[in-house]
Amino acid sequence: MMTRKSFLCGAAAFAAVRPWRVFAATGAARPITLDIAGATPDLRFGVVSDVHVREAAGLYGTEALVKAFTWFRDQGADGIVIAGDMADHGLVSQLQCVADAWNRVFPDGRGLGGRPVEKLFIYGNHDIEGFRYSKLTPPPDALIATDRAAAWERAFGEPYAPIWKKTVRGYTFIGAHWDGWKGVPSIEPYLKEHAADLRGDRPFFYIQHPHPKGTCHGDWAWGQDDGFATRALSPFPNAIAFSGHSHHPLVDERAIWQGAFTSIGTASLRYIDPVYGRENAGPSALDDLRQMALVDRFSGKEGLLVSVYSGRVVVRRRDIVNDGDLGPDWVIPLPATEPKPFDFAARGASAVPPEFPADAKVVVRGPFDGKDRKGRAVRQIEVSFPAATAGDGRPRAYDYEVAAEVEESGARRIARSKRVYSPTYFLTPERDTGMAGCVFSLDELGTRKAKWLNPKVRFRVRAAESFGNPGRALASDPVAL
User: Fold this and answer.
1) Residue spans per domain, the chain
2) Percent of the chain's residues with pLDDT above 70
3) What is the distance between the alpha carbons of residues 36 and 163, in angstroms, rounded to a whole number?
4) Cα of 269 vs its chain's centroid, Å
5) What is the tens place of the pLDDT at every residue in 386-426?
6) Which CATH architecture has domain 5-350?
7) So what CATH class is 363-480?
8) CA of 150: how far to CAs of 13, 67, 147, 165, in Å?
9) d(CA 124, CA 209)
Protein backbone atom coordinates (compact mmCIF):
# COMPACT_ATOMS: atom_id res chain seq x y z
CA MET A 1 0.00 0.00 0.00
CA MET A 2 1.39 3.39 -0.95
CA THR A 3 1.16 6.20 1.55
CA ARG A 4 -0.06 9.68 0.84
CA LYS A 5 3.46 10.99 1.39
CA SER A 6 4.86 8.79 -1.37
CA PHE A 7 2.65 10.59 -3.87
CA LEU A 8 3.69 14.11 -3.00
CA CYS A 9 5.19 15.97 -5.92
CA GLY A 10 7.69 18.76 -5.48
CA ALA A 11 6.95 21.96 -7.30
CA ALA A 12 9.30 22.36 -10.16
CA ALA A 13 8.69 27.58 -13.54
CA PHE A 14 2.28 39.71 -26.18
CA ALA A 15 4.61 38.81 -28.75
CA ALA A 16 4.71 40.12 -32.35
CA VAL A 17 2.60 38.15 -34.82
CA ARG A 18 4.84 36.23 -37.19
CA PRO A 19 4.60 36.46 -40.96
CA TRP A 20 2.28 33.51 -41.58
CA ARG A 21 3.07 30.67 -43.93
CA VAL A 22 -0.35 29.72 -45.22
CA PHE A 23 -1.05 26.87 -47.61
CA ALA A 24 -3.96 24.98 -49.08
CA ALA A 25 -5.32 21.93 -47.32
CA THR A 26 -3.81 19.56 -49.89
CA GLY A 27 -0.32 19.89 -48.45
CA ALA A 28 1.66 22.74 -50.09
CA ALA A 29 0.55 22.67 -53.69
CA ARG A 30 -1.32 26.00 -53.87
CA PRO A 31 -0.78 29.00 -51.59
CA ILE A 32 -3.95 30.55 -50.23
CA THR A 33 -4.04 34.23 -51.12
CA LEU A 34 -4.75 35.57 -47.63
CA ASP A 35 -2.53 38.44 -46.59
CA ILE A 36 -2.49 38.28 -42.82
CA ALA A 37 1.18 38.96 -42.22
CA GLY A 38 1.43 41.26 -39.24
CA ALA A 39 -2.31 41.19 -38.53
CA THR A 40 -3.48 41.11 -34.93
CA PRO A 41 -5.87 38.25 -34.15
CA ASP A 42 -9.15 38.78 -32.35
CA LEU A 43 -8.30 35.73 -30.21
CA ARG A 44 -5.28 33.50 -29.80
CA PHE A 45 -4.99 30.35 -27.73
CA GLY A 46 -2.65 27.41 -27.28
CA VAL A 47 -3.70 23.76 -27.36
CA VAL A 48 -1.97 20.73 -25.88
CA SER A 49 -3.24 17.37 -24.73
CA ASP A 50 -2.17 14.17 -23.00
CA VAL A 51 0.43 15.77 -20.78
CA HIS A 52 0.70 12.66 -18.54
CA VAL A 53 2.52 14.27 -15.63
CA ARG A 54 3.80 12.03 -12.83
CA GLU A 55 6.24 14.35 -11.11
CA ALA A 56 7.93 17.73 -11.44
CA ALA A 57 11.02 16.45 -13.25
CA GLY A 58 12.07 13.45 -15.32
CA LEU A 59 10.63 11.54 -18.26
CA TYR A 60 7.09 12.23 -17.02
CA GLY A 61 7.84 15.65 -15.54
CA THR A 62 6.55 19.12 -16.30
CA GLU A 63 9.47 20.46 -18.35
CA ALA A 64 7.68 20.14 -21.71
CA LEU A 65 4.50 21.62 -20.22
CA VAL A 66 6.39 24.62 -18.84
CA LYS A 67 8.04 25.10 -22.22
CA ALA A 68 4.66 24.93 -24.00
CA PHE A 69 3.09 27.37 -21.55
CA THR A 70 6.05 29.73 -21.98
CA TRP A 71 5.91 29.62 -25.77
CA PHE A 72 2.16 30.21 -25.81
CA ARG A 73 2.60 33.10 -23.37
CA ASP A 74 5.26 34.66 -25.60
CA GLN A 75 2.93 34.37 -28.61
CA GLY A 76 0.29 36.41 -26.78
CA ALA A 77 -2.14 33.61 -26.00
CA ASP A 78 -5.44 34.58 -24.35
CA GLY A 79 -6.05 31.04 -23.10
CA ILE A 80 -4.57 27.54 -23.01
CA VAL A 81 -6.47 24.33 -23.76
CA ILE A 82 -5.43 21.03 -22.19
CA ALA A 83 -7.65 18.38 -23.75
CA GLY A 84 -7.32 15.85 -20.94
CA ASP A 85 -4.89 13.35 -19.39
CA MET A 86 -3.02 15.77 -17.16
CA ALA A 87 -2.29 13.44 -14.22
CA ASP A 88 -0.90 10.17 -15.58
CA HIS A 89 -1.87 8.02 -12.58
CA GLY A 90 -4.91 10.05 -11.62
CA LEU A 91 -3.30 11.41 -8.45
CA VAL A 92 -4.13 14.70 -6.75
CA SER A 93 -0.40 15.40 -6.34
CA GLN A 94 0.14 15.01 -10.10
CA LEU A 95 -2.68 17.42 -10.85
CA GLN A 96 -1.01 19.85 -8.47
CA CYS A 97 2.19 19.53 -10.53
CA VAL A 98 0.22 20.78 -13.56
CA ALA A 99 -1.16 23.66 -11.47
CA ASP A 100 2.36 24.51 -10.25
CA ALA A 101 3.61 24.62 -13.85
CA TRP A 102 0.74 26.96 -14.73
CA ASN A 103 1.41 29.26 -11.78
CA ARG A 104 5.09 29.34 -12.62
CA VAL A 105 4.41 30.74 -16.11
CA PHE A 106 1.11 32.55 -15.45
CA PRO A 107 1.20 33.88 -11.87
CA ASP A 108 -2.29 35.02 -10.89
CA GLY A 109 -3.48 33.81 -14.30
CA ARG A 110 -1.61 36.53 -16.18
CA GLY A 111 0.99 36.54 -18.92
CA LEU A 112 3.37 39.21 -20.17
CA GLY A 113 2.36 42.76 -19.35
CA GLY A 114 -0.40 41.52 -17.07
CA ARG A 115 -2.33 39.99 -19.96
CA PRO A 116 -5.10 37.68 -18.58
CA VAL A 117 -4.79 34.06 -19.72
CA GLU A 118 -7.67 31.62 -19.21
CA LYS A 119 -7.34 27.98 -18.14
CA LEU A 120 -9.34 25.80 -20.57
CA PHE A 121 -8.62 22.37 -19.09
CA ILE A 122 -10.57 19.12 -18.89
CA TYR A 123 -10.08 15.72 -17.28
CA GLY A 124 -9.23 12.70 -19.44
CA ASN A 125 -9.37 8.99 -18.67
CA HIS A 126 -5.93 8.96 -16.99
CA ASP A 127 -6.99 11.75 -14.62
CA ILE A 128 -9.86 9.58 -13.40
CA GLU A 129 -8.63 6.00 -13.65
CA GLY A 130 -4.93 6.09 -14.53
CA PHE A 131 -3.93 4.39 -11.27
CA ARG A 132 -5.64 1.23 -12.51
CA TYR A 133 -3.49 1.05 -15.65
CA SER A 134 -0.32 0.88 -13.55
CA LYS A 135 -1.95 -1.39 -10.93
CA LEU A 136 -1.35 1.13 -8.13
CA THR A 137 -3.25 1.01 -4.85
CA PRO A 138 -3.05 4.57 -3.52
CA PRO A 139 -5.10 5.75 -0.56
CA PRO A 140 -8.51 7.16 -1.57
CA ASP A 141 -7.65 10.73 -0.61
CA ALA A 142 -4.69 10.61 -3.07
CA LEU A 143 -7.04 9.99 -6.01
CA ILE A 144 -8.71 12.62 -8.17
CA ALA A 145 -11.55 10.15 -8.74
CA THR A 146 -12.49 10.17 -5.05
CA ASP A 147 -13.68 13.77 -5.34
CA ARG A 148 -13.19 15.27 -8.78
CA ALA A 149 -14.55 18.65 -7.81
CA ALA A 150 -12.43 19.03 -4.67
CA ALA A 151 -9.23 18.04 -6.51
CA TRP A 152 -10.00 20.49 -9.32
CA GLU A 153 -10.86 23.40 -7.05
CA ARG A 154 -7.82 22.81 -4.85
CA ALA A 155 -5.41 22.68 -7.81
CA PHE A 156 -6.84 25.37 -10.07
CA GLY A 157 -8.77 27.64 -7.70
CA GLU A 158 -11.96 27.65 -9.78
CA PRO A 159 -15.33 25.88 -9.55
CA TYR A 160 -15.70 22.45 -11.13
CA ALA A 161 -18.56 21.44 -13.42
CA PRO A 162 -18.83 18.27 -15.54
CA ILE A 163 -19.41 20.54 -18.54
CA TRP A 164 -18.20 24.12 -18.31
CA LYS A 165 -18.72 27.18 -20.50
CA LYS A 166 -16.32 30.13 -20.61
CA THR A 167 -16.03 33.30 -22.69
CA VAL A 168 -12.60 34.54 -23.80
CA ARG A 169 -12.42 37.85 -25.68
CA GLY A 170 -16.02 37.36 -26.81
CA TYR A 171 -15.59 33.75 -28.01
CA THR A 172 -17.28 30.77 -26.35
CA PHE A 173 -15.40 27.69 -25.14
CA ILE A 174 -17.20 24.59 -23.88
CA GLY A 175 -15.29 21.83 -22.11
CA ALA A 176 -16.63 18.37 -21.25
CA HIS A 177 -14.72 16.33 -18.67
CA TRP A 178 -14.16 12.59 -19.08
CA ASP A 179 -17.38 10.68 -18.49
CA GLY A 180 -16.43 7.15 -19.48
CA TRP A 181 -15.19 5.27 -22.53
CA LYS A 182 -18.36 5.88 -24.53
CA GLY A 183 -17.97 9.64 -24.39
CA VAL A 184 -20.11 12.37 -22.84
CA PRO A 185 -23.83 11.53 -23.30
CA SER A 186 -24.91 14.76 -21.59
CA ILE A 187 -23.27 16.95 -24.25
CA GLU A 188 -26.26 16.52 -26.56
CA PRO A 189 -28.88 18.02 -24.20
CA TYR A 190 -26.35 20.64 -23.06
CA LEU A 191 -25.74 21.99 -26.57
CA LYS A 192 -29.47 21.92 -27.34
CA GLU A 193 -30.09 23.97 -24.22
CA HIS A 194 -27.52 26.58 -25.29
CA ALA A 195 -28.21 26.39 -29.04
CA ALA A 196 -29.57 29.92 -29.33
CA ASP A 197 -26.35 31.37 -27.92
CA LEU A 198 -24.09 29.17 -30.07
CA ARG A 199 -25.59 29.46 -33.54
CA GLY A 200 -24.24 32.00 -36.00
CA ASP A 201 -21.15 32.76 -38.06
CA ARG A 202 -18.86 33.32 -35.09
CA PRO A 203 -17.01 30.09 -34.20
CA PHE A 204 -17.24 28.45 -30.82
CA PHE A 205 -14.76 25.91 -29.50
CA TYR A 206 -15.55 22.55 -27.95
CA ILE A 207 -13.10 20.42 -25.96
CA GLN A 208 -13.35 16.76 -24.96
CA HIS A 209 -10.78 14.03 -24.50
CA PRO A 210 -11.73 11.30 -27.07
CA HIS A 211 -12.11 12.16 -30.73
CA PRO A 212 -15.73 12.61 -31.83
CA LYS A 213 -16.61 9.46 -33.71
CA GLY A 214 -15.89 9.42 -37.45
CA THR A 215 -14.10 12.77 -37.53
CA CYS A 216 -10.38 13.53 -37.21
CA HIS A 217 -8.14 10.59 -38.17
CA GLY A 218 -11.24 8.90 -39.59
CA ASP A 219 -11.91 5.26 -38.84
CA TRP A 220 -8.21 4.75 -38.01
CA ALA A 221 -8.34 6.71 -34.77
CA TRP A 222 -8.02 4.79 -31.54
CA GLY A 223 -10.43 5.54 -28.70
CA GLN A 224 -13.19 7.50 -30.42
CA ASP A 225 -16.39 8.21 -28.50
CA ASP A 226 -19.68 6.49 -29.33
CA GLY A 227 -20.94 9.37 -31.45
CA PHE A 228 -22.45 11.61 -28.77
CA ALA A 229 -20.29 14.63 -29.64
CA THR A 230 -20.62 14.14 -33.39
CA ARG A 231 -24.41 14.18 -33.15
CA ALA A 232 -24.40 17.08 -30.72
CA LEU A 233 -22.07 19.27 -32.82
CA SER A 234 -23.49 18.47 -36.27
CA PRO A 235 -26.19 21.21 -36.11
CA PHE A 236 -23.41 23.79 -35.64
CA PRO A 237 -21.23 24.39 -38.73
CA ASN A 238 -19.44 27.09 -36.70
CA ALA A 239 -18.25 24.56 -34.09
CA ILE A 240 -14.54 23.68 -33.91
CA ALA A 241 -13.80 20.69 -31.68
CA PHE A 242 -10.45 19.80 -30.10
CA SER A 243 -9.74 16.30 -28.77
CA GLY A 244 -6.77 14.17 -27.74
CA HIS A 245 -6.59 10.61 -26.38
CA SER A 246 -5.19 8.88 -29.49
CA HIS A 247 -1.78 10.66 -29.39
CA HIS A 248 -1.82 10.53 -33.21
CA PRO A 249 0.62 13.11 -34.63
CA LEU A 250 -0.12 16.47 -36.21
CA VAL A 251 1.91 15.69 -39.35
CA ASP A 252 -1.00 13.43 -40.31
CA GLU A 253 -3.23 15.64 -42.47
CA ARG A 254 -6.21 13.63 -41.24
CA ALA A 255 -5.77 15.29 -37.84
CA ILE A 256 -8.12 18.00 -39.14
CA TRP A 257 -11.56 17.02 -40.47
CA GLN A 258 -14.49 19.01 -41.78
CA GLY A 259 -18.01 17.77 -42.23
CA ALA A 260 -21.03 19.19 -40.47
CA PHE A 261 -18.50 20.91 -38.16
CA THR A 262 -14.69 21.00 -37.79
CA SER A 263 -12.78 18.50 -35.64
CA ILE A 264 -9.07 18.72 -34.82
CA GLY A 265 -6.88 16.13 -33.10
CA THR A 266 -4.36 17.59 -30.67
CA ALA A 267 -1.64 14.86 -30.56
CA SER A 268 0.25 14.68 -27.25
CA LEU A 269 2.76 16.65 -25.23
CA ARG A 270 4.19 13.43 -23.74
CA TYR A 271 4.64 10.92 -26.57
CA ILE A 272 3.33 10.30 -30.07
CA ASP A 273 1.36 7.16 -30.84
CA PRO A 274 1.53 6.34 -34.57
CA VAL A 275 -1.42 4.90 -36.41
CA TYR A 276 -0.84 1.13 -36.36
CA GLY A 277 -0.44 -1.23 -39.29
CA ARG A 278 3.14 -0.19 -40.07
CA GLU A 279 6.14 -2.45 -39.61
CA ASN A 280 7.68 -0.10 -37.04
CA ALA A 281 4.43 0.97 -35.36
CA GLY A 282 2.51 -2.22 -34.66
CA PRO A 283 1.56 -3.32 -31.14
CA SER A 284 2.75 -6.71 -29.93
CA ALA A 285 -0.67 -8.16 -30.77
CA LEU A 286 0.20 -7.79 -34.48
CA ASP A 287 2.72 -10.58 -34.48
CA ASP A 288 3.29 -10.38 -38.25
CA LEU A 289 4.76 -6.87 -37.83
CA ARG A 290 7.84 -7.50 -35.77
CA GLN A 291 11.05 -7.35 -37.80
CA MET A 292 12.38 -3.92 -36.80
CA ALA A 293 12.51 -1.46 -33.90
CA LEU A 294 9.55 0.80 -33.18
CA VAL A 295 9.81 4.53 -33.77
CA ASP A 296 10.96 6.55 -30.74
CA ARG A 297 7.61 7.98 -29.70
CA PHE A 298 9.01 10.08 -26.86
CA SER A 299 11.01 12.35 -29.18
CA GLY A 300 7.81 14.02 -30.40
CA LYS A 301 5.92 16.52 -28.21
CA GLU A 302 3.34 18.51 -30.11
CA GLY A 303 0.86 21.36 -29.70
CA LEU A 304 -1.22 23.91 -31.59
CA LEU A 305 -1.40 27.68 -31.68
CA VAL A 306 -4.83 28.86 -32.85
CA SER A 307 -5.36 32.43 -34.07
CA VAL A 308 -8.84 33.73 -34.85
CA TYR A 309 -9.13 36.58 -37.36
CA SER A 310 -12.07 38.15 -39.12
CA GLY A 311 -12.81 35.66 -41.89
CA ARG A 312 -10.48 32.80 -40.87
CA VAL A 313 -9.00 30.65 -38.15
CA VAL A 314 -5.31 29.84 -38.53
CA VAL A 315 -3.99 26.67 -36.84
CA ARG A 316 -0.23 26.44 -36.41
CA ARG A 317 1.23 22.97 -35.73
CA ARG A 318 4.21 23.07 -33.40
CA ASP A 319 6.98 20.73 -32.27
CA ILE A 320 7.20 22.18 -28.77
CA VAL A 321 10.50 20.69 -27.63
CA ASN A 322 12.44 21.08 -30.88
CA ASP A 323 11.12 24.59 -31.59
CA GLY A 324 9.81 24.13 -35.09
CA ASP A 325 6.64 23.96 -37.17
CA LEU A 326 5.43 20.53 -38.23
CA GLY A 327 3.89 21.59 -41.51
CA PRO A 328 1.98 24.37 -43.27
CA ASP A 329 -0.66 26.18 -41.25
CA TRP A 330 -4.25 25.02 -41.55
CA VAL A 331 -6.55 27.90 -42.53
CA ILE A 332 -10.26 27.46 -41.79
CA PRO A 333 -12.45 30.01 -43.62
CA LEU A 334 -15.10 31.88 -41.62
CA PRO A 335 -18.00 31.58 -41.78
CA ALA A 336 -18.15 27.90 -42.74
CA THR A 337 -17.98 27.55 -46.52
CA GLU A 338 -18.86 25.02 -49.19
CA PRO A 339 -16.91 23.14 -50.37
CA LYS A 340 -15.13 22.61 -47.08
CA PRO A 341 -11.35 22.81 -47.55
CA PHE A 342 -10.64 20.03 -45.03
CA ASP A 343 -13.16 17.48 -46.27
CA PHE A 344 -11.45 14.08 -46.32
CA ALA A 345 -12.84 12.84 -49.64
CA ALA A 346 -11.97 16.01 -51.54
CA ARG A 347 -8.51 16.24 -50.06
CA GLY A 348 -7.77 12.59 -50.73
CA ALA A 349 -8.87 12.95 -54.35
CA SER A 350 -6.78 16.06 -55.01
CA ALA A 351 -3.73 15.39 -52.85
CA VAL A 352 -0.35 15.68 -54.54
CA PRO A 353 1.78 12.60 -53.82
CA PRO A 354 5.32 12.94 -52.47
CA GLU A 355 8.30 11.93 -54.59
CA PHE A 356 11.85 10.85 -53.92
CA PRO A 357 14.79 13.06 -54.94
CA ALA A 358 15.98 12.46 -58.48
CA ASP A 359 19.21 10.81 -57.29
CA ALA A 360 17.56 8.59 -54.65
CA LYS A 361 18.54 4.93 -54.51
CA VAL A 362 17.24 1.88 -52.69
CA VAL A 363 20.01 0.02 -50.87
CA VAL A 364 19.58 -3.62 -49.81
CA ARG A 365 21.64 -5.33 -47.13
CA GLY A 366 21.55 -9.07 -46.54
CA PRO A 367 20.41 -11.72 -46.13
CA PHE A 368 22.00 -11.73 -42.67
CA ASP A 369 21.42 -13.31 -39.27
CA GLY A 370 19.29 -10.91 -37.27
CA LYS A 371 16.69 -10.76 -34.52
CA ASP A 372 13.09 -9.61 -34.54
CA ARG A 373 11.55 -7.34 -31.88
CA LYS A 374 10.93 -10.30 -29.61
CA GLY A 375 14.57 -11.31 -29.73
CA ARG A 376 14.06 -14.36 -31.90
CA ALA A 377 16.84 -15.32 -34.31
CA VAL A 378 15.79 -14.92 -37.94
CA ARG A 379 17.33 -14.43 -41.39
CA GLN A 380 16.56 -10.89 -42.51
CA ILE A 381 16.97 -8.41 -45.35
CA GLU A 382 17.13 -4.66 -44.70
CA VAL A 383 15.91 -2.12 -47.27
CA SER A 384 17.09 1.51 -46.93
CA PHE A 385 16.06 4.63 -48.85
CA PRO A 386 16.17 8.43 -48.37
CA ALA A 387 13.20 10.26 -46.92
CA ALA A 388 10.91 11.88 -49.49
CA THR A 389 10.96 15.51 -48.39
CA ALA A 390 8.70 18.45 -49.27
CA GLY A 391 9.53 20.65 -52.23
CA ASP A 392 8.43 21.70 -55.72
CA GLY A 393 4.82 21.91 -54.55
CA ARG A 394 4.87 18.41 -53.09
CA PRO A 395 4.37 17.39 -49.45
CA ARG A 396 6.75 15.32 -47.37
CA ALA A 397 6.02 11.63 -47.09
CA TYR A 398 3.68 10.41 -44.37
CA ASP A 399 4.68 6.76 -44.77
CA TYR A 400 6.16 4.34 -47.32
CA GLU A 401 4.95 1.25 -49.12
CA VAL A 402 7.73 -1.34 -49.55
CA ALA A 403 6.93 -4.28 -51.82
CA ALA A 404 9.17 -7.34 -52.12
CA GLU A 405 9.06 -8.78 -55.65
CA VAL A 406 10.51 -12.29 -55.76
CA GLU A 407 11.69 -13.87 -59.01
CA GLU A 408 12.12 -17.65 -59.29
CA SER A 409 12.92 -19.32 -62.63
CA GLY A 410 11.96 -16.09 -64.38
CA ALA A 411 8.51 -15.90 -62.77
CA ARG A 412 7.84 -12.81 -60.64
CA ARG A 413 5.42 -12.37 -57.75
CA ILE A 414 4.82 -9.87 -54.97
CA ALA A 415 5.78 -11.93 -51.93
CA ARG A 416 5.04 -9.34 -49.26
CA SER A 417 4.12 -5.66 -49.08
CA LYS A 418 4.58 -3.56 -45.95
CA ARG A 419 4.04 -0.01 -44.88
CA VAL A 420 6.60 1.72 -42.72
CA TYR A 421 7.23 5.15 -41.17
CA SER A 422 10.42 7.10 -41.37
CA PRO A 423 11.88 7.02 -37.83
CA THR A 424 11.51 10.82 -37.73
CA TYR A 425 8.27 11.21 -39.70
CA PHE A 426 6.46 13.01 -36.86
CA LEU A 427 9.19 15.63 -36.29
CA THR A 428 9.66 18.89 -38.19
CA PRO A 429 10.49 18.61 -41.92
CA GLU A 430 14.05 19.73 -41.23
CA ARG A 431 14.51 16.73 -38.93
CA ASP A 432 13.04 14.22 -41.38
CA THR A 433 15.69 14.30 -44.10
CA GLY A 434 17.71 11.19 -43.31
CA MET A 435 17.34 7.56 -44.27
CA ALA A 436 14.25 5.44 -43.80
CA GLY A 437 14.01 1.69 -44.09
CA CYS A 438 12.15 -1.55 -43.70
CA VAL A 439 13.14 -5.08 -42.65
CA PHE A 440 11.82 -8.38 -44.01
CA SER A 441 12.49 -11.90 -42.84
CA LEU A 442 13.22 -14.54 -45.45
CA ASP A 443 10.25 -16.50 -44.11
CA GLU A 444 7.99 -13.60 -45.10
CA LEU A 445 9.21 -13.83 -48.68
CA GLY A 446 8.14 -17.47 -48.94
CA THR A 447 11.08 -18.48 -51.12
CA ARG A 448 11.78 -22.13 -51.82
CA LYS A 449 15.24 -23.47 -51.03
CA ALA A 450 16.12 -25.14 -54.34
CA LYS A 451 19.12 -23.27 -55.75
CA TRP A 452 18.26 -24.23 -59.33
CA LEU A 453 15.26 -21.84 -59.02
CA ASN A 454 17.83 -19.02 -58.80
CA PRO A 455 15.62 -16.95 -56.41
CA LYS A 456 16.12 -13.21 -56.38
CA VAL A 457 14.29 -10.34 -54.74
CA ARG A 458 13.83 -6.75 -55.84
CA PHE A 459 12.24 -4.09 -53.61
CA ARG A 460 9.99 -1.32 -54.88
CA VAL A 461 9.39 1.66 -52.58
CA ARG A 462 6.77 4.35 -52.95
CA ALA A 463 6.26 7.37 -50.71
CA ALA A 464 2.64 8.18 -49.78
CA GLU A 465 0.90 11.19 -48.28
CA SER A 466 -1.56 11.02 -45.38
CA PHE A 467 -4.53 9.92 -47.50
CA GLY A 468 -2.53 7.08 -49.06
CA ASN A 469 -1.80 8.51 -52.51
CA PRO A 470 1.63 7.15 -53.55
CA GLY A 471 4.29 8.65 -55.75
CA ARG A 472 6.40 6.85 -58.36
CA ALA A 473 8.14 3.66 -57.33
CA LEU A 474 11.84 3.55 -56.61
CA ALA A 475 13.33 0.10 -57.29
CA SER A 476 16.40 -1.67 -55.96
CA ASP A 477 18.70 -3.91 -57.92
CA PRO A 478 17.83 -7.61 -57.61
CA VAL A 479 19.48 -9.47 -54.74
CA ALA A 480 20.18 -13.22 -54.74
CA LEU A 481 18.54 -15.17 -51.94
Assistant:
1) 5-350, 363-480
2) 90
3) 35
4) 9
5) 999 988 889 999 999 999 999 887 788 899 999 999 999 99
6) 4-Layer Sandwich (3.60)
7) mainly beta
8) 24, 28, 5, 19
9) 5
